[in-house]
Amino acid sequence: xxxxxxxxxxxxxxxxxxxxxxxxxxxxxxxxxxxxxxxxxxxxxxxxxxxxxxxxxxxxxxxxxxxxxxxxxxxxxxxxxxxxxxxxxxxxxxxxxxxxxxxxxxxxxxxxxxxxxxxxxxxxxxxxxxxxxxxxxxxxxxxxxxxxxxxxxxxxxxxxxxxxxxxxxxxxxxxxxxxxxxxxxxxxxxxxxxxxxxxxxxxxxxxxxxxxxxxxxxxxxxxxxxxxxxxxxxxxxxxxxxxxxxxxxxxxxxxxxxxxxxxxxxxxxxxxxxxxxxxxxxxxxxxxxxxxxxxxxxxxxxxxxxxxxxxxxxxxxxxxxxxxxxxxxxxxxxxxxxxxxxxxxxxxxxxxxxxxxxxxxxxxxxxxxxxxxxxxxxxxxxxxxxxxxxxxxxxxxxxxxxxxxxxxxxxxxxxxxxxxxxxxxxxxxxxxxxxxxxxxxxxxxxxxxxxxxxxxxxxxxxxxxxxxxxxxxxx
Length: 475
Known about the structure:
- The chain contains 21 helices and two strands.
- It is mostly helical.
- The protein has three domains: 3-73; 105-223 and 327-469, no CATH class; 229-319.
- A two-stranded antiparallel sheet has the order 1-2.
- α8 packs across α19 and α19 (389-407) packs across α20 (437-449).
């Protein structure tokens, strides 16, 4: 339905109203109106009312149809432009327990050959629970409030969170049942206790992953709606100069023109968002050489490729911006859920003491060889096929240390130093280190394992992956 339909409906209302008004105004007022005249007047008023309703309905239909037409006419951006490049989280990863291997004769003798190592493991000052701690209670009741837009993205998140929670509960219960079964075998009980703690770390980490997926979906939907026509606008801008060649596409004038075009586009759509200097990533010498090689005799193809690459870079920039993503209240609700789970874990895991940290560090170092350094040490520690009981003990120690480091309440350390001269020149004083004792120990161990000791979160995640991989069903 076109705009003409709305106009004709409005004109119909005006015509009826004017006709009725004229007829009434041309007659002198008679206080003794007959019943028939009153009925006629009522009929006129009903006509006006009905026509106004018809006009309103027609107008709403037109607006609705125009929105549908606009939605249908939107040229969808290629998926690779709005893709995060990350594989979606599998929320149904059940544990797989292979048949327990018989320990070698040498390993059976370990408690006798190395009694102190076995005793140290048996006496680790950890609180082994034989019941579900229910740290995911808050997830059971989690829901969003007042979702006005992007409902599909929030429904997808809620469904995946529900599935993740069910899988976590099932896996935890299965591990606890194995702990109970091996209650009298402290070595085995610690093994399953360590696995349970890694599942808790994995659970919290995966809630964060689902949050990232939600943000990516929100950014994708918003970008698709607001910037679907950007590639065409860029090509049209490049077409204003008919004498362009591929070298000219990378000239400073062209770059400035496109910068202004994109800045204006972003300011009109999202005025509070800063786009930075992402355009320079597209117009570097490396990309120019690739463009010349691939589109030597195809200027139009080069323009189209350039427009898509610029659009992709803009999306990468905007998708990291919280102002662009929006939905701050709902995102904050997920942040609060993660904080609540972290708090529940911290309160129920038992206190982190120097004795605990020292015992776990000792459990790592005394169970590896002195010359064990990098060279796939982490693989050897967590390899399920390995029959080296000492490596398994060392692996459990660093996994538990990683768990406590993941959830500890941050208490930063001061380091004291004493020497001659002024403090600023190395004299007596103290320095503030923004690392906890666990973080410092994990850095040393990460370096020993060949992990990135400057990024502890990444190192801890790798330890979690390596240990749980032993309980993932082979494909």
